[in-house]
TrEMBL record:
Short name of any one Pfam family annotated for the protein: Flavin_Reduct
Keywords: Flavoprotein
Domain of life: Bacteria
GO molecular function: FMN binding; oxidoreductase activity, acting on the CH-NH group of donors, NAD or NADP as acceptor
Domain Flavin reductase like: 17-187
Name of the protein this chain belongs to: Flavin reductase (DIM6/NTAB) family NADH-FMN oxidoreductase RutF
Amino acid sequence: MTSERHVVVEPSVLYVGTPAYLIATGNPDGTPNLAPASSYWALGRMLVLGIEVDGQTAANLRERPDITVNFPSGDLWRSLVRLSSLTGRDPVPEGKRRRYRFERDKFAAAGLTPQPSELVVPPRVLECRLQFEARVRRTTPGLDGSYLMVEAEVLRVHADPAILDPTGEHIDPTLWNPIVYAFRHFFERGAEVGWLASSPTARHPPVLD
Ligand SMILES: Cc1cc2nc3c(=O)[nH]c(=O)nc-3n(C[C@H](O)[C@H](O)[C@H](O)COP(=O)(O)O)c2cc1C
């Protein structure tokens, strides 16, 4: 029997499925910029975001480290598409000219509402049920110079009460439905298949046999 079950492929992107998020940063004139992104991971209270260097988001967070990271649910996918051809950078950088135009008010362009933050300057996105206020602690240039690895400390988490468990202390993952961005398509997260024994919201330990 052969063990070879795969073929070699050359996908045009390697976005295998991460949450899409909306990152708000502060422009030099005090207005907010808003951008969709998906390069994301978290460990403890630290986020690591992958942000392209030629956008307004990168320029803003290098100068003004306050950010908000807002997680849309499936119903907001059209806002991500509306933002996908907009940059807050004026003039539009050479590398973005083919696909992007400058937009000063990205909240309005996306049909989204700025909501004042409590600890940081940029607003949150009202329509997002899960929002982080965070502060950039370090930016590290990526190997090819086209992106930054942005390490940000989460200072406060805001959640719509509708996604909390009965204690009000935990996000109930069965009620929380982030957009998953995979190979340029948007998905809701699908059915639960299991959980960890360490979950504070699981009703019983996972059954493994
Ligand atoms: C679904 C989606 C995911 C994206 N993911 C990222 C990402 O992870 N990092 C990034 O820098 N740009 C990402 N982009 C592209 C940015 O939104 C784009 O660079 C934009 O110019 C940023 O806006 P700004 O120039 O106002 O900062 C993504 C765009 C979309 C629509």
